[in-house]
Design brief:
The protein is mainly β. It has one domain (33-234). It has one helix spanning 5-16, and strands at residues 18-19, 23-27, 32-41, 54-73, 77-81, 84-87, 90-110, 115-133, 138-158, 162-174, 180-193, 198-211, 220-234. The strands form two sheets. The protein has a nine-stranded mixed β-barrel with strand order 3-4-7-8-9-10-11-12-13. β9 and β10 (162-174) form a beta hairpin. The longest helix is centred in the N-terminal third of the chain and has 12 residues, at 5-16.
Length: 235
């Protein structure tokens, strides 16, 4: 009978647990990498050594990151993911990978002194691979989302080699079951061009992935921030 006591207590805790605010956490030591290709319509041209005051760009961006965090659950709290319940008190460990591919059009406006503005609109694909574990259970969430991307950015150029920028984009990603994940990305940094076609982008990126899940499923609120390194191609 004594051997059955811990199992009985665990079952009782699960039965009495109430949903918490969802899985929520952020990794501030993440890193990002990827590839970005840009086509300019019409082809790039300079006037008196400066690019035109208005451009239309087509951009394809692929990037990835991974992170992890721990979340404490109090007495009576619980998380439910893919039908698996994680009861409190205790802690859960979350590890996640996020891959993103966006295809967008950009209207780029710039002044004579190099200051400019980007208006961004397009489509994005986001994949989340999430593993959650505790002393009592483990579960994996693997889902893909697709939806519109909107954003804006500010920049300062020293043509033709250097561009400093800050940019904010938002994607509404439709995932399985009719749920929608909000994916927001803020980044700021510089792009250094080595040749007309090849460059590197060094930046700091902050990503948030928020999803209100239906039914008994707990919401997901993930974050990752850290350095970004992207190879840029101008085609």
């Amino acid at each position: 009978m004594r051997a059955l006591a811990p199992a009985a207590l665990a079952l009782l805790a699960a039965a009495c647990a109430s949903p918490s605010g969802g899985l929520s956490g952020s990794d501030g030591d993440a890193s990002f990498g990827g590839l970005r290709a840009t086509w300019e319509v019409p082809r790039r041209h300079f006037s008196d050594g400066k690019p035109p005051g208005q451009q239309v760009l087509l951009e394809v961006d692929a990037s990835a990151t991974r992170g992890d965090f721990d979340q404490a659950l109090g007495v009576g709290d619980s998380l439910t993911l893919e039908g698996t319940t994680f009861p409190g008190p205790g802690a859960v460990q979350a590890r996640f990978d996020v891959q993103q591919v966006t295809v967008d059009g950009r209207l780029r406006l710039r002044s004579d002194v190099g200051l400019g503005l980007d208006a961004i609109g397009g489509l994005g694909f986001t994949r989340l691979d999430l593993q959650v574990a505790s002393f009592a259970a483990s579960e994996t969430v693997d889902q893909q989302g697709f939806g519109p991307v909107l954003g804006t950015g500010l920049f300062f150029e020293l043509p033709p080699r250097l561009r400093l920028y800050a940019e904010l984009t938002w994607q509404a990603a439709l995932v399985g079951g009719g749920d929608v994940a909000d994916v927001q990305v803020f980044e700021t940094g510089l792009e250094l061009r080595f040749t007309e076609a090849l460059g590197l982008l060094f930046a700091w990126r902050d990503l948030t992935y928020q999803e209100e899940r239906g039914g008994a499923e707990s919401d997901i609120d993930l974050g990752a921030s850290g350095p970004l390194l992207i190879l840029t191609l101008r085609l």
